[in-house]
Amino acid sequence: MSDRVSVTYENHIAHVRLTRAEKMNAVDQAMIDGIIAAGNEVAASKARVCVISGEGKGFCAGIDIGGLGAMIGKDPVELMMPRTHGIGTTNQWQEVSMVWTRLPMPVIAAVHGVCFGAGMQLALGADIRIAAPDARFAVMEMKWGIVPDMGGMVLMPRLLRSDVMRKLTYTAEPVAAEKAEALGLVTELADDPLAAAMELAEALTLKSPAALRAAKALIGYAETHEPDDILLEESRAQAGLMGTPEQMEVVAAQMQKRAPVFKD
Question: Which residues lie closer than 8 Å to 145 by C-beta, 6 or more apart?
């Protein structure tokens, strides 16, 4: 796709790789463009699951400091405030993480090494985060005198207690993978997070694609709506799945103790 991000497809899995290994996958303008383009491509694909990983020694070291320098002298309001991406709700920096929340299929982030700032917010955009024991996470923005501004304030409150989120944000201190798992930032640990992410992705390809997409949409709805509305949405989603050929194939496969066969 670009010299910053690649996308490959195999066995119904889209694999998005950050490929700026020589810079620890630090995010510059080309990386921003590549990540957003990758998200939009996968969203329009027939992939059933998406995996995001970083090449080299770390997942993502955060914003390239040279990129911050390039913004000096420009009007911050003109840079930040226009809603240019998504459904008119994000700027380009926020879209780096938020595009993955809008993908219809499950997204798994495989994290190793550093996962700082922009990289952490990118990982938070995934449904599931599998981290290596050596991974480190940081809300890094306070180090540079700024605040998280790439979707972090939408995504962190879904995972963290308010006091924990405040400490991580105020201090900008890195957190080791084991502690990140205990706090709720990480779903699980694995010595080889990419292999574990791919194993999980392969297992999910055997689930009903329509049900997976419905479940992701329903969970997202449940995170932002009131109980009565959620109950109605549950019923609506279920009514759209029950009795379809795909759901009947799932039932038949269970009864016959075989793998289901879905249309691509």
Answer: none
CATH architecture assigned to 5-204: Alpha-Beta Complex (3.90)
**Domains of the chain: which residue ranges?**
5-204, 209-256
Q: Edge to edge, what strands does the sheet with 49-54 contain?
A: 5-10, 13-18, 49-54, 107-111, 128-131, 188-189
In the block, residue with structure tokens 């709506």: 225
What is the C-alpha separation between 51 and 119, in angstroms, rounded? 15
- The span from the CA of 141 to the CA of 161, in Å, is 19
> What DSSP element (H or E) covers 15?
strand 13-18
The arrangement of strands across the sheet holding 114-116 comes to 114-116, 136-138, 175-176
* Rounded Cα gap, residues 190 and 231, in angstroms: 36
Taking the C-alpha atoms of residue 146 and residue 127, their distance in angstroms, rounded to an integer, is 26
Q: Which CATH superfamily is domain 209-256 in?
A: Lyase 2-enoyl-coa Hydratase, Chain  A, domain 2 (1.10.12.10)
pLDDT digits (tens, 9 = 90+) for 95-112: 999 999 999 999 999 999
- 114-132 tens-digit pLDDT: 999 999 999 999 999 999 9
**Helix 92-102 with 29-43: angle, nearest 10 deg:** 20
**Separation CA 82–CA 78 (nearest Å):** 7
